[in-house]
Specification:
The complex is a heterodimer of chains A (109) and B (112). Chain A is mostly beta strands. In chain A, 0% of the residues lie in helices and 46% in strands. Chain B has 112 residues and is an all-beta fold. In chain B, strands 2, 4, 5, 6, 9, 10 and 11 form a seven-stranded mixed sheet that branches. In chain B, strands 1-3-8-7 form a four-stranded antiparallel sheet, with no helix packed on it. The chains are: A mainly beta (109), B mainly beta (112). The interface between A and B is medium-sized, with 20 and 18 residues.
Chain lengths: 109, 112
């Protein structure tokens, strides 16, 4: 199963908004509303930020939002803060398995 | 406190097997399935498979079929992941995840 495609890196200044894309196919991202996004700080376990395309788990800031159009899902972070600097991974359900994106390093300038 | 606590780091020789445990607390164990995800040093996340804590049904990544077995023990609220015929490229941090909770990770090093 091929990994989903994410940009290797994105950056933004504090207070700005950024969007990370996650492109798959009609067999994964486009075929199911089961896209998740994870945040991972160095040396730490991933943290679920968005599930089922656009839902936030309890405790996750509303500065994080998710959406999907066709075979591409997106994670938007508004009002960037220094602590948002991390790696971000998308994941999608795909016919009885899951696949991850390659990850995006977010740098807060 | 809802948490998943994994077993400690392991060092194995090529061809050996490793079994990582993941003990759940703070919630009803059978309410969620447990996924296993690994991350090689400096690399991204790789989905390994999933097991239903309710009935033990499993679903494994195609590339690991035949080498991985996931099990649960509902009496101790613990999930296990066994990987056999270890190779150097199995060196990674192994995570369990249930619902929106992740374990702390277990480093498995395969080296002769």
């Amino acid at each position: 199963q091929s990994a989903l495609t994410q940009p290797a890196s994105v950056s933004g200044s504090p207070g700005q908004s950024i969007t990370i894309s996650c492109t798959g196919t009609s067999s994964d991202v486009g075929g199911y509303n089961y896209v998740s996004w994870y945040q991972q700080h160095p040396g730490k376990a991933p943290k679920l930020m968005i599930y089922e395309v656009s839902n936030r788990p309890s405790g996750v800031s509303n500065r994080f939002s998710g959406s999907k159009s066709g075979n591409t899902a997106s994670l938007t972070i508004s009002g960037l803060q220094a602590e948002d600097e991390a790696d971000y991974y998308c994941s999608s359900y795909t016919s009885s398995s899951r696949v991850f994106g390659g990850g995006t390093k977010l740098t807060v300038l | 406190q809802v948490q998943l606590v994994q077993s400690g780091a392991e060092v194995k020789k090529p061809g050996a097997s490793v079994k990582v445990s993941c003990k759940a607390s703070g919630y009803t164990f059978t309410s969620y399935g447990i996924s296993w995800v690994r991350q090689a040093p400096g690399q991204g996340l790789e989905w390994m498979g999933w097991i239903s804590a309710y009935n033990g049904n499993t679903n494994y990544a195609q590339k690991l079929q035949g080498r991985v077995t996931m099990t649960t023990d509902t009496s101790t609220s613990t999930a296990y992941m066994e990987l056999r015929s270890l190779r150097s490229d199995d060196t990674a941090v192994y995570y369990c995840a249930g619902g929106d909770i992740w374990g702390q990770g277990t480093m498995v090093t395969v080296s002769s």
